[in-house]
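Per reviewer request, we include the raw input and output of the structure prediction for the construct analysed in the revised manuscript.
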Amino acid sequence: MEQALLQARTLIESTVVLHRRRSVADTVPVARTGAAHLGESVERLIARGHHAVSVTLVGHGEFTESVLRVLGENPGRAVVRVLCTAEIAPDVAERLAGLPIEQTEVRVSDSDLRAVLVVDGFTALMPANCAGGGEQFAVVNDMATVRALELLFAGTWGAARRLADHLRLSPRLRLELVRKILERLRAGHTDEAAAHEINVSLRTYRRYVAEILRDLDAISRFQAGARAVQLGLLPA
């Protein structure tokens, strides 16, 4: 799966480069400054969806705003999957709170995400910096590229945590030091060995472990490691 995701990312990057170099008949650039055009493109694509709309939202930009506005006003008839960063998770939760739960699912990822909208596996909308300067968006109809985008989305989606689980998490659980401790809890390291590996005192390590168990509502260290995987805090 990891190799496939790397291949997908390479194909996506090549598509962006191609868009920078020349205009392609089936690729429609939308100027970043033309917010109305971007909104219209998002609305048209989502309305066209019959089966599945997959979208990745990164940061508080025009793309995120356009997608959230359209989904909030008219989500269409397709099943919608929204993948977002932790930074904007609270805003996404608020903006999409009124959507039917049987039609919409939101997950949160700590991975390096690329903003993209994929509709029915046939069309995608993604950022593309053009030679003329300024950020633009490309509507991509090339099947190989769209399938690569879907593959990349699916791989990240599978490792992401559900929005409800994310919102219940203590901010402490997303610290890098806590991630290292969780890795060692899952691996079954002794406290002494783990504390030495991450360069903290044994007392500090055990204090963190106690806090982690409480935050994850776990009764054992092994359960804490398993719970961390379920919540997307650790890779499966």
